[in-house]
Amino acid sequence: EAQVTQNPRYLITVTGKKLTVTCSQNMNHEYMSWYRQDPGLGLRQIYYSMNVEVTDKGDVPEGYKVSRKEKRNFPLILESPSPNQTSLYFCASSLSSGNYGYTFGSGTRLTVV
Amino acid sequence: AQSVAQPEDQVNVAEGNPLTVKCTYSVSGNPYLFWYVQYPNRGLQFLLKYITGDNLVKGSYGFEAEFNKSQTSFHLKKPSALVSDSALYFCAVREPHSSASKIIFGSGTRLSIRP
Question: What confidence score (pLDDT) does residue B99 get?
């Protein structure tokens, strides 16, 4: 089944403790992206990647890192999480043409206390 | 810069009635437009898209959307609402000739269908 897989689904952590949210897609998509969803703000893009070893900042990159060492994986790293990073996170992927929409993962609900 | 607006936070409709979820956009050139639906505790699911061609686009679950260039709108519609249509709906826009990653999402509209 074609899908984007995120792990974990739920995570509670403490301020300052480094964490990684994994994202993997099995559709051979070139483009991958991370969004955070907050009430009343919709989805805001954190980082995106156009292909292996090519990443760029989205609209809200502060406090986040990403890497794209393999085409299928695009992990999101929070080096020192803070409470304002409590949110619902989505990974998404797409073919390069852009005529297609994104395929989204099921989301990761992160709580930083 | 491209942007998309969903003017209604919530839309309430009785089952069996027609529904409309509004979306307006601002881009340079002809836009690529998308609608997504999010059910509770799930990721966003693709409903339909407009790239070019007929202004009326048909999508999943009986939904359709009408592209109106003069009004810069892309409203989502369904002739007869079902209780199972209750969910959060997102409109999204991308400028042509930009990278596929630059899709901007609206703030979302919560659709509530009462029995």
Answer: 62
Q: pLDDT tens digits for chain A (113 residues)?
A: 889 999 999 999 999 999 999 999 999 999 999 999 998 888 999 999 989 999 999 989 999 999 999 999 999 999 999 999 999 999 999 887 666 778 999 999 999 99
Measured between beta carbons, which residues in chain A are less than 8 angstroms from residue B46? Answer: 101-103
Please tell me the number of Cα atoms within 13 Å of B39 on its side-chain side. Answer: 7
Q: Bridge partners of A87? A: A110
Spatial neighbors of A45 by CB under 8 A, at least 6 apart, are A33, A34, A35, A58, A59, A60, B101
**Which pair of structure tokens corresponds to residue A19?**
């964490």
Residues from chain A contacting residue B101 (CB–CB below 8 Å): 31, 33, 45, 48-50, 56, 94
Q: Residue B48's closest chain A neighbor by CA? A: A101
Distance CA A87, CA A63 (A): 13
Residue found by looking up tokens 């009986």 in the block: B62
Task: Select the residue of A56, A95, A102 nearest B103 (Cβ to Cβ).
Answer: A102
